[in-house]
Amino acid sequence: MTAIQHQPLQGSHFRRILVIAANTFTQLVRMKVFYFMGIFAVIAIASNFFDLPQHEGPESVGSNVLRSIKSWSLGAMTLFSVVLSVVATALLLPKDVEDRTLYTILAKPVPRFDYLAGKLTGVLMLVFVSLLVMDLLMTAVLHIRTGMVVEQQMEMARAMGWPPEAIDSLRAETLANGPNLSLQGAVLAVFLRASIMASLALLISTFSTSTLFTTIVSFLVYFIGHFQADARDVWLHAGQEGEGVFARLAALLFSLILPDFQLFNVIDAVIEGQAMSLIALGKLTLVGLYYAVFFTFASWFIFADKEF
Amino acid sequence: MKTVWKSVALLGALLAFGAARIPYEAGLERQLCDDGLFPPDLEIGTRERIGQTSSAVALGGLRTLVATFLNLRAFTFFTEQRWADVEDTFETMVDLAPRTRYYWETGSWHLAYNAASYYINDSKLPPLRRREAWRASIVKGRNFLERGIRNNPDDWRLQASLGFLLSDANKFHAFRDPDEALAASADAYRAAAATGRALGYVKRAELYALARVAGRESATLALARRLYAEGPQNRTPTLQMLLLVLEAHENPDMNVDARAIEIFGDAQKAYDALSNHWFRTRERFPVYGVAEGLRALEKQLAIPPEDSVLNQPPPPPRGPDDWFRE
């Protein structure tokens, strides 16, 4: 009875995708991609201990260091996650073809969609774990440094005889620059952007002839994608601006085809101390999912009857 | 043929997918803008200033990181007293990170205070040019802060910094009309207080600025009375003194010495307060009734005429005319 109940699960798409994902994750880990985390650790820890030259008055002492830690850390996370997701995904299909693993897998009753989804999930698991570790390190460093800065500021405020309301206001302002939920939201935004890049690289790799081509085109799309919103604005407001037909069509095409990566620049606002609402984060997550799902299906559409 | 058909189908799907998401993305962008989470577009001038590599990094969503690097560079320019470079770098930094108060405050401080003070002592320039450079630098500092406020209207500290700059006795001569600068200072402090998050001193600072604007005595007196009535935390010597002189302005027949004793507690304290106020000539504080009050109190305290404050030479009202003398 039990065996009958388990049978559908073992043969399910979900199960197959998970197996391929776990395998891909292991494969990537063996490629020693986590080495870059050492560099991140150095950046995060160094940004805490280096007393960089700053212009600051006694009341703002240390606050800028907190912003620097966030800025360095989230910057490094963005860089590592995008590079990792593009390069790892670009490597997957050619490597499986080269090792002939692909033939073994496709010879079995594994739908091609499951294969692609599994590969992508493996890369995303790798990016997620990397970001999680980096996030933990950043939060720990930021937590320690925020405590130090608050202590220093309170000592200064008491020495200068500040009234309690002023001391509380200063403490609240400094704590807002420390680890908080918006910062975790920013890390999620980094992950979403990396997920879109990974799924886009997967799509490109299904028709690309080399890893280099996939990598270059993916990065080009990444940078151009930061202008997509400009093209969309040209299209939406072309009537008022008096743009010509050709410019309008070019803007429309540009904005329809390319993903909008500028939306994920909310990270900058969070570094600057803005709070990110759950609704905004939820809507961003939907955007990320929308792209990832579409690109995965598009990859499958191309890959479905590709001959090797 | 099949490949062509597939490519066309994929392109069609891509376009349909794009058409479906554009309204959603445009709406989300508007929401993020309203929430203050969406940075304004990078100006072409900024892209040129930060160079190709940094532009690529900034466009790749790492604008605050580039601003952090530039902040380090600005510090070097500051130590080398390269004021034009300091200004340029801060202009770029605030384009990249317009919501970071620190960059607005520090950039304005460099221009209005550090660069301006540098020009007072710059022996390489003739006095007239030094004076113009000093004036221009303070005006740039003001404009920079005002831009910061436009970008961060809810930030009370930026408003307070502007109020402080415009009511600084060493600065307001740089503006064509010091009365306008002091009135703007009072407005800035009022706006800071209106955010509801500002510290208590900004309300008093509004009074100190407004009291120095010619022709606003009635409004200032009303404010002084309101703040005085709020409690002892507001009864600083300056506020008490302004209340006295503004009452003397409103009622020229008022017995100033009696009212001063009532406010300050006893004749000696009243005399000390009036004496200090009498010497604050550089700050343009009103002195209605102060001389009469001092004379009456000197009589009460039996202070000989040779020790009278009124017979002491007031400190010279040092300002641009002294700093930029040939």
Protein topology:
The complex is a heterodimer of chains A (308) and B (326).
Chain A: H1 2-10, H2 13-30, H3 36-49, H4 63-98, H5 101-107, H6 112-159, H7 164-176, H8 181-207, H9 211-225, H10 228-236, H11 238-241, H12 245-257, H13 266-271, H14 278-303
Helix pairs in contact in A: 2-6, 3-4, 3-6, 4-6, 4-8, 4-9, 6-7, 6-8, 6-14, 8-9, 8-14, 10-12
Chain B: H1 2-34, H2 44-59, H3 63-79, H4 83-96, H5 101-121, H6 127-151, H7 156-166, H8 178-194, H9 201-210, H10 217-230, H11 237-250, H12 256-264, H13 267-278, H14 290-301, H15 320-323
**Rounded Rg of chain B:** 28 Å
Q: Helices and strands of chain B: which structural class?
A: mainly alpha
Major sheet of chain B, described briefly?
Answer: none
The largest chain-to-chain contact, stated as pair and per-chain residue counts, equals: A-B, 63 and 53 residues
Between the first and last Cα atoms of chain B, what is the distance in angstroms?
A: 88 Å
Number of helices of chain A: 14
Q: How much of the residues of chain A is beta strand, in percent?
A: under 5%
Q: Number of DSSP helices of chain B?
A: 15
Radius of gyration of chain A: 24 Å
Mean pLDDT of chain B: 89
Order of helices and strands of chain B: HHHHHHHHHHHHHHH
Strand tally of chain A is 0
Sequence of secondary-structure elements of chain A: HHHHHHHHHHHHHH
Sheet-strand content of chain B, in percent, reads under 5%
- Helicity level of chain A, as a percent range? over 70%
Distance between the termini of chain A: 41 Å
